[in-house]
Amino acid sequence: MTKFIHFFAILALCAFCTYCTSPVQKIPVIFDTDANNEVDDQHAMAYLFMNGNTFDVRGVTVNATFSGGKIDEQYAEADRIVRLCNVTGIPVKKGADSDFETIAPTIAQKDFDGSDAVNFIIARAKAMKNEKLVVIAVGKLTNVALAVEKDPSITDKIRLVWLGSNYPDPGEYNLVNDIPSMNYLLDTDIEFELVTVRYDKPSGTTAVIAFKEDILKKMPGKGPLAKEPVTGRHGKEFRCFGDYSVNLFEECENHGNPPGRSLFDMAAVAIVKNPSWAEVQVIPAPFMQDRQWVERPNNKRTIKVWENFNVKAILNDFYQTMDNYKLVEIK
Hints:
Elements lengths: L1 H15 L10 E7 L6 H10 L5 E8 L8 H14 L7 E3 L5 H4 L11 H12 L6 E5 L4 H9 L7 E6 L9 H5 L1 H8 L4 E5 L13 E3 H7 L11 E2 L5 E2 L2 H11 L8 E3 L1 H10 L5 E6 L2 E3 L2 E3 L7 E6 L3 H13 L8
Parallel strand pairs: 1-2, 1-4, 2-3, 4-5, 5-6, 6-14
Antiparallel strand pairs: 7-10, 8-9, 11-14, 12-13
């Protein structure tokens, strides 16, 4: 009898104990994007917004790269996804049209190219107390580099996860849009993680391919209902992200057999959610000269390099998220 009394006493204590369970710590994120360039940015944003149990999205900052138009068009596409996902309380800030070396001499001015996004990144980083702000950057690194140049104190408050480069090979779209911004950040103390692209190689995010037939089959009607119709970049109106996803895949050029598109940027979000979905190595920070990587084996400053992505797990989670979404909280 005494044993039973002790057993039920323990159960009663556990029922009232505040230490037995604790809320899951959500990951604070700013998403830095050239949203109108491709089709992967939009899917990355939707995946981020619909993972409300994992992420605390503090805002979206936008930059302009070679494709997709100037900053207003990039902003418009990011705003479409915010509205289609019914998270209109998330701030969307316009960032750099130009490049780091052009803008950096002007950052003492009240208004400069990209100032809204740059000042936003600084403010959100400085507000962090006991954890780092994760900046998932999926375009050029201009906004982040300008923020660090303007206020170097934020480097220890940011974890930068950049979708970019074919490292250790040269090239890649995000990188060549602003190489000096990347080189600048590689020589700061900011926590720097490089999510490889590696065109046509199975070890990079290029391998994370969403096939058109799967998008057309799985995505119609997915996601929350927008408060009002949203006109897409190709002119039609949409009420949910899933239908817009179908339209994006119908309007873009698909590659391969079966045809599809790589969801590079979505994979970058996925490995922040679950680091086991890729392999990571720590290396001395290199830099780029004449568009070629230069290794610095004696460099004490290190970065992380992500590769060999679990394509099946990442895509399965993307589609499952679309089926059973939990929107991020608006604060």
